[in-house]
Design a protein that fits this description.
The protein is mainly alpha-helical. It has one domain. It contains 16 helices and no strands. Helix 2 runs antiparallel to helix 12, helix 4 (87-110) runs antiparallel to helix 5 (117-133) and helix 6 (140-168) packs parallel to helix 15 (355-369). The longest helix is centred in the first third of the chain and has 33 residues, at 10-42. The radius of gyration is 22 Å and the shape is globular. The relative contact order is 0.23. The model has no long low-confidence stretch (mean pLDDT 88).
Length: 412
């Protein structure tokens, strides 16, 4: 046995794994903060500082409340880590996957490219599976489902954005104060209901569906009623000022919903691999069957995301908020609302898809709805190229890092 592997130094590997997992969570927050608040900042609905703190708070809440769903997919869904009887294999593999992901996303963030961290970490875990178990050791069915979701999601959010834009185009200016308030009530109810329902439903059984619908409806009505009561007293009489006020508030609420869903989905990128390391260190292997993700891993990773948002989250915001297409308060809300609904649906299905993909698709959608000339095709193509490159490149980097770690350890 190597001198770098044994009981006395076993927990050193846990510290190293936790450090790398935190790094990925941190750069995840730094890059993906734009997904939640880029539209709000680009439309001048929020100052940069307030937007960063809003995103950090709701990202953390989403992570600790609903982070279990996708973390389990990254722990055992892509590569069945319970097949490894040697704890060192799991630890080296997960550290390699996280390190490859972290380096790739730091590079993307430096160049202000909104990156799909989910694509990177899935590629990293896949590379680890190939180098240790061969191609047969990867759950290609799950990979196919994830890739399908990646391909469908931008078109889903883009189509929703185009549909909502065409639905509201021209109608908002003709609405009376009372009608505008009623329309905003309906939009808020839809946003709150979909968020609560999609994150609270546990199965498709009739009893679970009925309970989720009842709970979501009751809470959504309460929140919408409070919103209506406050807005009815504060909404200006001037139609233009009323529209700006209503959609600014709705945009802020939808940005919070996107941040919440980002935390629920993307905390898995760190918590899933970190959970594998924890089980390997504590139990000597990842147990077979359905096992819980240690809550400490989720809280730890959620805190890393929140810290990354506050410290470096401004880096990519302009790309989302201004460089794909120009946004005003109303179009920014439509993009944010569409992206939130799309990502919540796929999050609840347990697929590690990307909020980056959802919001970029939605922002591009409102641009295309106004005409192709309103979309910066070059910026959009650069972003999408980085997504497609990430998957194989990070897989290759993960395989290389696994070999390097393994070689280094056996030298001592």
């Amino acid at each position: 046995m190597s001198a770098l592997w044994g009981g006395s130094l076993l927990h050193l590997w846990l510290i190293i794994g936790a450090f790398v997992a935190f790094l990925v969570a941190w750069v995840n927050g730094a890059n993906n903060a734009a997904n939640a608040i880029g539209t709000a900042v680009g439309a001048r609905a929020l100052s940069l500082k307030k937007a960063l703190y809003l995103a950090a708070a709701f990202d953390f809440l989403g992570a600790i409340l609903f982070g279990q769903f996708v973390s389990a997919t990254l722990l055992k869904g892509i590569v069945d880590t319970s097949r490894f009887n040697d704890a060192s294999t799991v630890i080296y593999g997960m550290i390699a996957s996280l390190l490859a992901t972290g380096i790739w996303v730091i590079i993307a963030t430096w160049f202000r490219i909104p990156m799909s961290i989910s694509q990177a970490i899935v590629g990293g875990v896949m590379g680890f599976g190939i180098i240790t178990l061969g191609f047969g050791g990867v759950n290609w069915g799950k990979i196919a489902a994830i890739i399908t979701a990646w391909l469908v999601l931008p078109f889903m959010s883009g189509a929703l954005a185009i549909g909502f834009y065409k639905l509201f185009r021209g109608r908002l200016k003709s609405l009376s104060k009372r009608s505008l308030l009623f329309a905003s009530d309906m939009l808020l109810f839809a946003l709150v209901f979909s968020t609560i329902f999609l994150l609270s439903i546990k199965t498709l059984k009739v009893s679970d569906l009925a309970k989720a619908i009842a709970d979501s409806t009751a809470l959504s009505l309460a929140i919408t009623g409070l919103y209506h009561f406050i807005m009815a007293k504060k909404i200006p009489d001037n139609p233009s000022e009323a529209r700006n006020m209503v959609f600014r508030i709705l945009l802020i609420i939808s940005a919070a919903a996107m941040a919440f869903s980002h935390g629920a989905n993307d905390v898995a990128n760190s918590a899933g691999p970190l959970a594998g390391i924890i089980y390997a260190v504590v139990k000597g292997r990842v147990p077979p069957g359905n096992i819980p993700i240690p809550y400490e891993a989720i809280v730890f990773s959620g805190a890393g995301i929140a810290l990354g948002i506050v410290m470096w989250g401004q880096r990519v915001i302009a790309t989302i908020g201004e460089k794909i297409t120009l946004l005003n308060i109303e179009t920014a809300f439509i993009a944010q609302f569409s992206g939130s609904i799309a990502i919540l649906i796929v999050t609840r299905l347990g697929l590690p898809v990307s909020t980056t993909v959802a919001i970029v698709g939605a922002v591009a959608g409102v641009g295309f709805a106004r005409g192709v000339e309103n979309v910066n095709i070059k910026t959009l193509a650069t972003i999408m190229a980085a997504w497609f490159i990430a998957f194989p490149v990070v897989a290759g980097m993960s395989m290389l890092f696994y070999k390097l770690i393994n070689t280094f350890v056996h030298m001592f």
